[in-house]
Design a protein that fits this description.
Layout lengths: L2 H10 L9 H7 L1 H18 L4 H8 L3 H8 L18
């Protein structure tokens, strides 16, 4: 997902008539977009070798909470999986 593209799509209204609540619609999507950015940052930091406790401190949560929130279910080990590659 490209954040700039997503915001431009929201602003353009997907080719439909302009939404009179376009600003609120865009703002309502910020938490989802922010969560996506945080997940990408965690993956990038893990791939760079940062520990979960260090990432957790940066996010204001514990290392255990970081592991629970950002480890994909069904994956083993502490290294990111093959599908866990942030965009470049």
């Amino acid at each position: 997902m490209n954040i700039e593209g997503e915001l431009a799509r929201i602003a353009a209204g997907d080719g439909e008539a302009p939404d009179r609540a376009a600003h609120c619609t865009a703002i309502a999507r910020i938490p989802r977009l922010t969560d996506h950015l945080v997940r990408l940052a965690v993956l990038a930091d893990r791939q760079a070798g940062a520990s979960r406790p260090r990432i957790g401190r940066a996010l204001g949560i514990s290392g255990e909470a970081t592991r629970a929130r950002f480890t994909r279910r069904g994956t083993a080990g502490s290294r990111p999986g093959r599908g866990d590659v942030p965009p470049r």
